[in-house]
């Protein structure tokens, strides 16, 4: 009877040791499965953007790098797959970088208005200039998604509210500067590259929104032009 009891205790001890190991392995497998093993249609372009070896084949390291980028910029699903939405964000970043220090090279934003805030929906860029002189920017922004497009044309800042809270969506809109109905410059707590876009406002980082707040005043011109990708 004593031998049986001892064998039972040993068996229970082995089970207790094996069970946590099984749980741990199961957890690791589940985590690995959440990272896509598939090669996306934009694999090489995404690899190049992220500074990964450009071979067009999905590796575990590739997936982790893509997944981290997707998570940072609220791209869903964030499984590390090099798809159209992920490449679209990266391609936009490349075009924004190419603007350099001359965002108004094409002359689409008026230069005869004195101080003016320009918003290029196509490149998702904004800047402030005074006549032909660039005063601040360009900076990446997040404008209205499909169905909530930021309206184009020449407008003016008409109301400023540093601690505004949206009456429609009940979310904070710090450093709000309204220029067209309910559409305003304001800061957001997510990436300005997060798809699909805002509900019409021009979203900015807190640093940029604070700078715009310090530079603009009621009555200053705002010019919005172009078309946001995907709208």
From TrEMBL:
<keyword id="KW-0808">Transferase</keyword>
<keyword id="KW-0961">Cell wall biogenesis/degradation</keyword>
<feature type="active site" description="Nucleophile">
    <location>
        <position position="201"/>
    </location>
</feature>
<keyword id="KW-0732">Signal</keyword>
<feature type="signal peptide">
    <location>
        <begin position="1"/>
        <end position="32"/>
    </location>
</feature>
<dbReference type="InterPro" id="IPR005490">
    <property type="entry name" value="LD_TPept_cat_dom"/>
</dbReference>
<dbReference type="GO" id="GO:0016740">
    <property type="term" value="F:transferase activity"/>
</dbReference>
<dbReference type="GO" id="GO:0071972">
    <property type="term" value="F:peptidoglycan L,D-transpeptidase activity"/>
</dbReference>
<protein>
    <recommendedName>
        <fullName>L,D-TPase catalytic domain-containing protein</fullName>
    </recommendedName>
</protein>
<dbReference type="Pfam" id="PF03734">
    <property type="entry name" value="YkuD"/>
</dbReference>
<feature type="domain" description="L,D-TPase catalytic">
    <location>
        <begin position="114"/>
        <end position="225"/>
    </location>
</feature>
<dbReference type="GO" id="GO:0008360">
    <property type="term" value="P:regulation of cell shape"/>
</dbReference>
<keyword id="KW-0133">Cell shape</keyword>
<dbReference type="GO" id="GO:0005576">
    <property type="term" value="C:extracellular region"/>
</dbReference>
<comment type="pathway">
    <text>Cell wall biogenesis; peptidoglycan biosynthesis.</text>
</comment>
<dbReference type="InterPro" id="IPR050979">
    <property type="entry name" value="LD-transpeptidase"/>
</dbReference>
<keyword id="KW-0573">Peptidoglycan synthesis</keyword>
<feature type="active site" description="Proton donor/acceptor">
    <location>
        <position position="186"/>
    </location>
</feature>
<dbReference type="GO" id="GO:0018104">
    <property type="term" value="P:peptidoglycan-protein cross-linking"/>
</dbReference>
<dbReference type="GO" id="GO:0071555">
    <property type="term" value="P:cell wall organization"/>
</dbReference>
<dbReference type="InterPro" id="IPR038063">
    <property type="entry name" value="Transpep_catalytic_dom"/>
</dbReference>
């Amino acid at each position: 009877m004593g031998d049986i009891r001892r064998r039972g205790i040993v068996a229970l001890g082995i089970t207790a040791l094996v069970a946590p190991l099984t749980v741990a392995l199961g957890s690791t497998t589940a985590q690995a499965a959440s990272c896509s093993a598939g090669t996306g249609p934009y694999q090489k372009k995404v690899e190049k953007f992220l500074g990964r070896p450009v071979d067009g084949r999905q590796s575990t390291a590739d997936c982790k790098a893509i997944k981290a980028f997707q998570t940072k910029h609220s791209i869903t699903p964030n499984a590390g797959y090099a798809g159209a939405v992920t490449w679209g964000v990266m391609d936009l970043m490349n075009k924004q970088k190419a603007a350099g220090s001359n965002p108004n090279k094409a002359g689409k934003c008026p230069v005869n208005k004195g101080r003016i805030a320009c918003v290029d929906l196509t490149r998702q860029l904004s800047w402030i200039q005074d006549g032909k002189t660039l005063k601040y920017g360009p900076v990446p922004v997040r404008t209205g998604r499909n169905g909530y497009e930021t309206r184009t044309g020449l407008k003016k800042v008409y109301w400023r509210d540093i601690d505004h809270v949206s009456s429609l969506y009940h979310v904070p809109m710090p450093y709000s500067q309204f220029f067209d109905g309910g559409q305003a410059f304001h800061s957001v707590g997510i990436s300005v590259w997060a798809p699909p876009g805002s509900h019409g406002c021009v979203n900015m980082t807190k640093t940029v929104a604070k700078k715009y707040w310090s530079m603009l005043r009621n009555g200053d011109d705002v010019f919005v032009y172009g078309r946001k990708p995907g709208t």
